[in-house]
Design a protein that fits this description.
79 residues; alpha+beta; two-stranded parallel sheet; 2 helices; 2 strands; globular
């Protein structure tokens, strides 16, 4: 049996913001947690994906109101 461990991404959350507009443009964002009311998830995702280094988005549930909204978000994220 090998003693090797699987390398997992490590995230350090050292800053929080209550509005995307408050995030300094110079900050390198690679992980975003969206914890807001369901009505604002799509708007926040549209704003947060402008950060070039963003790799992960964790969005609290419910993610969206319905399947159509989920499809719109998928299109925004180009996945």
């Amino acid at each position: 049996m090998s003693n090797q461990t699987k390398t997992e991404p490590q995230f350090i959350c050292n800053k929080t913001f209550d509005k995307v507009s408050k995030i300094p443009k110079k900050d390198e964002i690679n992980f975003a947690i969206i914890s807001s009311n369901i009505k604002s998830h799509q708007k926040i995702i549209r704003e947060i994906i402008k950060f070039k280094n963003l790799k992960y988005i964790l969005c609290e549930k419910p993610f969206c109101k319905n399947l159509n909204e989920a499809k719109k978000i998928k299109k925004i994220l180009k996945i």
